[in-house]
Write a structure and sequence with these properties.
Residues 1-233 form the Aromatic amino acid beta-eliminating lyase/threonine aldolase domain. By secondary structure, the chain is an alpha/beta fold. The chain has helices at residues 15-28, 39-50, 64-68, 85-94, 118-125, 138-145, 149-153, 179-191, 200-210, 214-234, 257-266, 289-300, and strands at residues 32-36, 56-60, 76-80, 101-105, 131-134, 158-162, 173-177, 249-252, 272-274, 278-282.
Length: 302
């Protein structure tokens, strides 16, 4: 970041940002990509280029876009049941004539990092409207399935990828898609206050993040699996059965969850209360095997 080559990204003159965007587009199998300050902004910009004001966009009821991101002014979201993919696709087909686009999520945060396979994702592409893929943790899905990220993004017109979270960069996301849409996305980013003049400082860290190999994501996944197994052993029935490979998110529901969160915090372990009865833990590049040992021991000693 200290030695990044810089220019004015507002005019496409930052060589490091240009390099990152080209690398992200290749990785995701798209024509072009745009660096964004955050995943939320990347999703907002994507919806702005897929739909006109007052047009309806279908999203999952449990999706991050619906639960945690306010919709753009004058753009309407149609939340539909996405508790499983078959039901989600069925509802979307029923809503086909009401919407101009739809959004899916891979991995799915609220479903404990549920992974959508390329075959499952393809059913959404066949609905017949443009698809936006919220791929904040898409690299985790690709590593879990041992497939290229572009295979998972093939169903989508536009796709986001967060450079922080599982990739380890301090800031940033990318939005990728057709070149004409990405040109409009740059204008939308500017209007939302998301353009960075010397963006190379951020892009340099993003380039390092994109080079993270699949085996390192799988190390994160194994750590999450150990935490999950420890929670299930300590509180039988506190985890839910999985239908796809696990990734780096663990959600469990022990008795008196707030007290468990507090006791873990006393041991220097920071997890999130997830609703009133559950706990969420996430592994990432900053978590070592020794850290996982500490978490597993702390859970076992409760």
């Amino acid at each position: 970041m200290q030695t990044a080559r810089l220019g004015n990204d507002l005019y496409g003159e930052d060589p490091t940002a240009n390099e990152l965007e080209a690398a992200a587009a290749r990785l995701l199998g798209k024509d072009s990509a745009v660096l964004m300050p955050s995943g939320v902004m990347a999703n907002k910009v994507a919806l702005s280029v897929l739909a006109e004001p007052d047009q309806l966009i279908a999203v999952g009821r449990l999706s991050h876009i619906n639960l945690f991101e306010d919709s753009l002014p004058q753009r309407l979201l149609l939340p539909v049941d996405d508790s499983d993919e078959e039901r989600f696709a069925e509802h979307l087909r029923s809503a086909r004539d009401q919407v101009v686009a739809l959004a899916i999520e891979n991995t799915h945060l609220m479903r404990e990092g549920h992974v959508m396979t390329p075959e499952a994702a393809d059913r959404f592409a066949r609905i017949g409207v443009p698809v936006h893929l919220d791929g904040a943790r898409l690299m985790n899905a690709a590593a879990a399935l041992d497939v290229p990220p572009a295979d998972l993004a093939a169903c989508a017109t536009t796709v986001t990828l967060t450079l922080s979270k599982g990739l380890g960069a301090p800031i940033g996301s990318v939005l990728a898609g057709p070149e004409d849409m990405m040109n409009r996305a740059r204008q939308s980013r500017l209007a939302m206050g998301g353009s960075l003049a010397q963006a190379g400082v951020v892009a340099a860290a993003g380039l390092v993040a994109l080079r993270r190999p699949p085996q390192e994501f799988r190390t994160d996944h194994r750590g999450a699996a150990r935490i999950r197994a420890a929670a299930e052993e300590r509180w039988p029935g506190s985890t839910s059965p999985r239908t796809t490979p696990g990734t780096n998110i663990v959600i469990w529901s022990p008795p008196e969850a707030p007290g468990v969160v507090a006791r873990l915090a006393d041991r220097g372990i920071h997890v999130l209360p997830w609703g009133e009865t559950s706990i969420r833990a996430v592994t990432h590049p900053g978590i070592s095997e020794r850290d996982i040992d500490h978490v597993v021991d702390a859970i076992g000693e409760m």
